[in-house]
Write a sequence for this structure.
């Protein structure tokens, strides 16, 4: 089966299975219920007193309800995967899938919430209105630059973390991968030059995170569909209004003030981080050969990387990463968000910032142990990764003054392990006992 | 106040190319705010001639540049207008104030305004006004912050855009 046939097969299975199971997640009670008597405390009359407790102190909602472990997965459906603006209803299968991963890998109760909103203000208002029910929000699949505006406003407004995974999750795993790539090739952040190809949500967040992690702003060069982002480019004036984040990077990156097409940026770079057009050839072999010795190339477009790994390696790259699971070094958000949210929820964090993310990225990098050029990030079946990241993030939330619940690193680690493993055991038992049905046969 | 490290001087005919490039950046930005400000890309020569005239005609126009070493950081172009029914009878109207992105937030705007205030004093003019697209909130905030207030509103439409009824 070639890759086209494989994709067609997965597409067919996805639709058939979805029709059979009718939803990837569900809610079930979390408390023992044996007889009518039990309702007297789980529901009326007793529950009124629980409400009164929370009414007197709304923070008690984290102790007396499931808020502590519940997040909303919010989207407006304007930029779903690679398929674009398909609307909120059509975003649901993706959000359900995300909720499933949150639950399976992080033990988080994640509720998919595609919203019918028509602009950024409505979106911010809707999420803000949902705040009392949740311990955090994962924003997903929102078009750029709207995603920057809504994330900034929500982070300022909410008393729980707002995380846009396409920006922050991706940035975090890129940094983790770069930390290990630099260790392996003997580089330091402050001396390394980076060409970031593509200036969408992921790379704009990545640039900001790299700067927080010690890269010099002047050593980064951003490239978009118009070429190198330089201080004198004509579209800068409109960017100041339409995308202040990109505008800010235009002013502080590219210390040499290089101009022109991609290859002018790549020449003499140590690192490429590309989140651009999913088309091999977007990055040419001869450009990679003009990079510094033992270069690092992250070609992250999906489903097709901007350059095939073997081409980058044969042109002088020492380490190559892609967004795909069938090549080594998959740069995958799923290594980040379950642990990050587990940690933020366990600390009852009020927010998240780049400092916390740098620590999360370092933890992910450290987890790998013995480095190999084809093993710079963990893989998704490294179950222990998630509680480790969680405890680091929770402690970082304490350091940042965001934590409502303070514990030691060991304490947080124990909590995260228990929560994740109990949850996983429940899923496994449900499969064993047939409450989660087996996959049906699908005819070819 | 932050020192820009630069100075203000009058624009000369030799500056015309850079002057034009900044003016066109500014006009294109205006076009982003309102479709009535769509730039006439087809006739750059006439536009250039007009601005050369403005630079030369120092009686009716003030054209200033903020410079740092040999780099031009920004420009200001203003007209001297008669106010025949009002007292005093002349005002200076800023039409274009543009600062290159890399020199923004460095007080270059105030440097240019300082330059034009000097020029106004020399000419005995005390009133200054500035025009910009209503949706340019950055310009609005800039002028309000330094004590300007709204004195006129200009409303407009394209009558060809009117749909019947």
């Amino acid at each position: 089966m070639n890759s086209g046939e494989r994709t067609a097969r997965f597409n067919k299975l996805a639709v058939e299975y979805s029709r059979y199971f009718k939803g990837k997640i569900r809610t079930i009670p979390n408390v023992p219920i044996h007889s009518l008597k039990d309702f007297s405390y789980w529901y009326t009359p007793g529950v009124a007193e629980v409400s009164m407790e929370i009414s007197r102190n709304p923070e008690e909602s984290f102790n007396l309800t499931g808020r502590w472990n519940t997040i909303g997965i919010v989207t407006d459906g304007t930029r779903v995967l690679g398929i674009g603006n398909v609307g909120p209803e059509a975003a649901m299968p993706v959000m359900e899938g995300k909720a499933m991963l949150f639950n399976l890998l992080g033990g988080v109760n994640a509720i998919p919430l595609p919203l019918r909103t028509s602009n950024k203000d409505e979106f911010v208002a809707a999420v803000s209105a949902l705040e009392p029910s949740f311990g955090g929000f994962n924003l997903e699949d929102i078009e750029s630059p709207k995603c920057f505006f809504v994330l900034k406003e929500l982070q300022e407004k909410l008393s729980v973390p707002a995380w846009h995974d396409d920006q922050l999750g991706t940035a975090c795993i890129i940094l983790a991968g770069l930390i290990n790539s630099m260790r392996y090739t003997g580089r330091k952040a402050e001396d390394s030059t980076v060409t970031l190809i593509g200036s969408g949500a992921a790379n704009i967040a990545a640039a900001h995170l790299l700067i927080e992690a010690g890269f010099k702003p002047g050593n980064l060069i951003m490239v978009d569909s118009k070429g190198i982002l330089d201080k004198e480019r004509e579209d800068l004036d409109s960017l100041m209004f339409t995308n202040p984040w990109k505008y800010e990077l235009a002013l502080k990156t590219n210390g040499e003030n290089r101009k022109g097409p991609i290859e002018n940026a790549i020449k003499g770079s140590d690192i490429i981080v590309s989140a651009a057009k999913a088309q091999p050839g977007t990055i040419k072999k001869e450009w990679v050969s003009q990079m510094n010795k033992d270069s690092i190339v992250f070609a992250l477009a999906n489903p097709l990387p901007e350059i095939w790994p073997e081409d980058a390696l044969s042109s002088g790259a020492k380490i190559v990463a892609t967004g795909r699971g069938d090549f080594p070094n998959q740069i995958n958000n799923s290594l980040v968000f379950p642990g990050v949210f587990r940690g933020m929820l366990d600390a009852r964090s009020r927010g998240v910032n780049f400092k916390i993310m740098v620590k999360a990225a370092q933890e992910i990098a450290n987890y790998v142990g013995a480095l190999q050029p084809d093993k710079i990030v963990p893989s998704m079946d490294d179950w222990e990764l998630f509680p480790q990241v969680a405890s680091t993030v929770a402690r970082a939330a304490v350091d940042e003054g965001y934590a409502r619940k303070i514990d030691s690193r060991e304490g947080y680690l124990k909590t995260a392990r228990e929560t994740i493993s109990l949850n996983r055991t429940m899923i496994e038992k449900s499969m064993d006992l047939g409450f989660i049905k087996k996959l049906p046969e699908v005819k070819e | 106040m932050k020192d820009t490290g630069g100075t203000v001087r009058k624009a000369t005919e030799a500056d015309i190319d850079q002057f034009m490039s900044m003016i066109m950046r500014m006009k294109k930005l205006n076009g982003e705010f309102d479709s009535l400000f769509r730039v006439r890309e087809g006739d750059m020569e006439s536009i250039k001639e007009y601005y050369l005239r403005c630079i030369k005609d120092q009686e009716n126009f003030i054209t200033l540049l903020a410079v740092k070493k040999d780099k031009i950081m920004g420009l200001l172009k203003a007209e001297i207008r008669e106010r025949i029914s009002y007292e005093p009878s002349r005002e200076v109207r800023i039409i274009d104030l543009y600062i290159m992105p890399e020199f923004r937030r460095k007080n270059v705007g105030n440097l240019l305004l300082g330059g034009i205030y000097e020029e106004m004093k020399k000419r005995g003019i005390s009133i200054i006004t500035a025009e910009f697209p209503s949706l340019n909130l950055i310009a609005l905030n800039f002028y309000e912050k330094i004590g300007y207030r709204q004195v006129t509103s200009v409303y407009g439409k394209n009558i060809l855009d009117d749909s019947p009824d």
About this structure: Chain B has one domain: 9-145. The CA atoms of residues 116 and 122 of chain B lie 10 Å apart. The interface with chain A takes residues 25-26, 28-29, 32, 100-102, 104, 138 of chain B (CB under 8 Å).
